[in-house]
Write a structure and sequence with these properties.
The structure holds 2 protein chains of 2 kinds. By secondary structure, chain A is mainly β. In chain A, the strands form 2 sheets. In chain A, strands 2, 4, 5, 9, 10 and 11 form a 6-stranded mixed beta sheet that branches. Chain B contains no helices and 11 strands. In chain B, strands 2, 4, 5, 6, 9, 10 and 11 form a 7-stranded mixed beta sheet that branches. In chain B, strands 1-3-8-7 form a 4-stranded antiparallel beta sheet, with no helix packed on it. Classes of the chains: A mainly beta, B mainly beta. At the A-B interface, β5 and β10 of A face β5 of B.
Chain lengths: 113, 114
């Protein structure tokens, strides 16, 4: 099955700085890599995803990069704001017919005003 | 669409009691997932249904846990008997594309077993 490792587990940045969260995966057949944001007491929600046919995707202040050779992908948040404070999860699909997502362990991002 | 609906939102019960959590997926979605979230273990997949059929239940921790999906618009997760270590937030999520597309999570059920 898929093994997803996520680093760091906690990250504190000053408002306006950039934040980077990294994930590695084990299954070279994986082709879909989403990132979810979970605010305190709320449900996880998709913020951006990337498929293996592209190396980078941007959506305003958020970007995801993918390196299939090295089997890692990263979330980049620029010009961080206090409302970016949350837990961020990466995920990758398992191989085979039972397609499902394996989630990373999460990164608690704190943006300091 | 109202999104994924879960009930109850909070459940407090005593050890040994039966607990039933309910989920209504987004209409038209063909995949449904039950997750458990704790500080220690993070977000764990318990079971995954596709077209109402259980595909992977390897995450179900013990025989005390069971899940059903009698039709495309309803699923239950049952714990019998419950134990304090079952205390967690249980999320239901649904999707068009199983592991290859966005999963829409419900608001979760916070379960406390005393």
């Amino acid at each position: 099955g898929e093994n997803v490792e996520q680093h760091p587990s906690t990250l504190s940045v000053q408002e306006g700085d950039s934040a980077v969260i990294k994930c590695t995966y084990s299954d070279s057949a994986s082709n879909y890599f989403p990132w979810y944001k979970q605010e305190l007491g709320k449900r996880p929600q998709l913020i951006i995803d990337i498929r293996s046919n592209v190396g980078e995707k941007k959506d305003q202040r958020i970007a995801v990069t993918l390196n299939k050779t090295a089997k890692h992908f990263s979330l980049h948040i620029t010009e961080t704001q206090p409302e970016d404070s949350a837990v961020y999860f990466c995920a990758a699909p398992t191989s085979g017919s039972a397609r499902q997502l394996t989630f990373g362990s999460g990164t608690q991002l704190t943006v300091l005003p | 669409d109202a999104g994924v609906i879960q009930s109850p939102r909070h459940e407090v019960t005593e050890m040994g009691q039966e607990v039933t959590l309910r989920c209504k997926p987004i209409s038209g979605h063909n995949s449904l997932f039950w997750y458990r979230q704790t500080m220690m273990r993070g977000l764990e997949l318990l079971i995954y249904f596709n077209n109402n059929v259980p595909i992977d239940d390897s995450g179900m921790p013990e025989d005390r846990f069971s899940a059903k999906m009698p039709n495309a618009s309803f699923s239950t997760l049952k714990i019998q008997p419950s134990e304090p270590r079952d205390s967690a937030v249980y999320f239901c999520a649904s999707s068009w594309l199983a592991g290859d597309g966005e999963q829409f999570f419900g608001p979760g059920t916070r379960l406390t077993v005393l």
